[in-house]
């Protein structure tokens, strides 16, 4: 007679709590495996639901976050872009300041951002320090910045690009060929 194998992790845990005389019972092993499988599914569902309460782990609950914040849901965008839009909108509450703009911009870009003000010109500049080229979700960032900034202030964006002096002797020809043209100064 072949032994029954418990495949469910929680079923094996349940079985470990039973008295030793059940070790040879295929009926009890099958029972614990069935109950354990259901518990595994329950815990998976609970953990998945818990993930929806946090922007950085939300998947199917992201629609709700967007609805609550008045953001139009666009399922064609990558989920990371949608998450960064929600996170920046959450960070964008409060009194307008350089720190607020920095927090919002860094939520989008994921890299370091410098914000400088030009009071004589009634404006400020957002410079992407760590990001090479134009961030993929710049249009989303622009729309959120327009919402949080006072209407009388103009905003400029500065980007970092790869220059010849940055790549000469550092990158191989293969690396340069595999780098998108948009990362280079003058690239499309």
TrEMBL record:
It comes from the Bacteria. Pfam families: Phage_Mu_Gp48. InterPro entries: Phage_Mu_Gp48 (IPR018755). This is DUF2313 domain-containing protein.
């Amino acid at each position: 007679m072949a032994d029954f194998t418990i495949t469910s992790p929680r079923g094996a845990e349940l079985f470990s709590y039973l008295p030793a005389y059940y070790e040879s019972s295929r009926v009890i092993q099958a029972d614990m495996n069935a109950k354990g499988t259901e518990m595994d599914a329950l815990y998976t569902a609970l953990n998945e639901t818990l993930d929806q309460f946090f922007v950085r782990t939300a998947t199917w609950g992201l629609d709700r976050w967007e609805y609550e914040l008045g953001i139009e849901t666009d399922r064609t965008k990558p989920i990371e872009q949608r998450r960064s839009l929600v996170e920046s909108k959450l960070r964008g509450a409060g009194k307008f300041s350089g720190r607020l703009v920095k927090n919002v911009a860094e939520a989008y870009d994921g890299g370091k951002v410098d914000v400088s003000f030009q009071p004589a010109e009634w404006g400020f500049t957002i410079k992407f320090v760590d990001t090479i080229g134009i961030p993929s979700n710049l249009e989303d960032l622009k729309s959120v910045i327009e919402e949080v900034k006072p209407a009388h202030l103009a905003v400029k964006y500065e980007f970092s690009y790869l220059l010849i002096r940055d790549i000469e002797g550092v990158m191989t020809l293969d690396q340069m060929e595999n780098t998108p043209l948009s990362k280079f100064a003058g690239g499309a």
